[in-house]
Amino acid sequence: MKRIIVAIGATVCAYTTMFAAGFQTLEQGASNMGTAAAGATANANADATAAFWNPSAGFNAGLEVGETKVDVGINVVLSVFDFNATSVTSVNPTLKPGKSGDAGCTSIVPNVFVLHRLTEDVMLTLSMTAPYALETDYDENWVGRQMALNSNLTTLEFNPSLAYRINKYITINGGISGQWLHANLTSMPDFVNEYAVSGQSFAVGGNAGFTINYAEDGRVGFQWRSEVSHDIAGNLNINGNVAKRIGCDLTLPQTFTVGWYQRLRGDLKRFAVMVDYAYTMWSSFDNLYIYGKDGSGAVTNQDESWRNTSRVCGGIHFFPLSNDDLVIRLGAAWDQTPIKDAQHRYARIPCTDRLWFCGGIGYKYGNFNIDISYTYIYFLDDPEMNDASYGTQLEGYFEGRAHVFAIQFGYKF
Q1: What is the pTM of this model?
Q2: Phi, psi of 141 (to 5 degrees)
Q3: Are 17 and 125 in contact (CB under 8 A)?
Q4: Which domains does the chain have, with CATH numbers?
Q5: DSSP letter for each residue of 144-180
Q6: By percentage, how much of the chain surpasses pLDDT 70?
Q7: CB-based burial of residue 366 (10 Å sphere; 0-12 exposed, 13-18 middle, 19+ buried)?
Q8: 55: left (phi over 0), alpha (psi -120 to 50) or beta
Q9: How far, in Å, CA of 233 to CA of 239, rounded?
Q10: Are 378 and 80 in contact (CB under 8 A)?
């Protein structure tokens, strides 16, 4: 189980990619994906995705008292992560250098967002998302099969919040998130057909934020999401049989995000610009300790030493029609990896710094809206790995890329 949670790697960097470094996903809303999530914290798209990004910005969705806005989205992630082994030292003579193993796969991520304006100054919001997720899948013949085969991690988060309008300029919010986590990891050490660890946990976190509407056509939003501490319990299975009960403590990081949105004026009134900055405190993930609940000690005690990371994104909206029902979106982002070097990059986490290039389109018809986006994720380098597990020293590098397609449907009633 060694990387039961850390296994948020290969896809994470593609999947988290649209989605932040480490194993945080940022696919919350196809409307936001069109600008690489720029403007999401200020609710640049004036939709229900504010329920996740910053509920205080939900007042900019244009709801009257008693009205409700619902947005539902589906995201499809197609990733490729080819590993090239430059050096293999192992007691198993069949393990040789060369190109071996593609961890990429196809993943589907759904989400739901709801806004309800209870009174003139009170708004209730709800988001149901997967803020952390991973699926990677190597072939059984790849050179690192002793370290990793299939990895699957899912979180489901139910996050109700309350937003309050202090005056026409300032709104605030606070909320509680209930988060369920399930992880499953398999590998194939020598003389073992399957080594599998699975576990699950439920934990609670919180969020708070504010929005400043400094002008009718401009605003700034801020959102903080707390750490979520999981106490994972599960089983270690060898060749299909339960070998022992295991436990693992995992603290998912707190994040700080600030965003700016401005609709331009005069001759540029058909354009809007937006920028977001996010800071994720991954330093909370300094060590992964998996232990036997029978008192047998460590199953894994692995140094991670992740660092805090930044993400910077910018985007534009173009409104070709006079009524603003149609919007064209473009955006880009730079996303920093929390992994410091090759010695802290493992078979399940080929993460590196990357760029996102995004585009999308949105259309409103009465109370309905539809948003579609596409994102291409480019690795800034070929991340190197130097990992030693189960009697094998494996060195090499990954070549990766990802495509993210997203669609969102919304209705106001």
Answers
A1: 0.86
A2: -95, 0
A3: no
A4: 12-412 (2.40.160.60)
A5: TTTT-SEEEEEEEEEEEEEEEESSSSEEEEEEEEEEE
A6: 91
A7: exposed
A8: alpha
A9: 20
A10: no
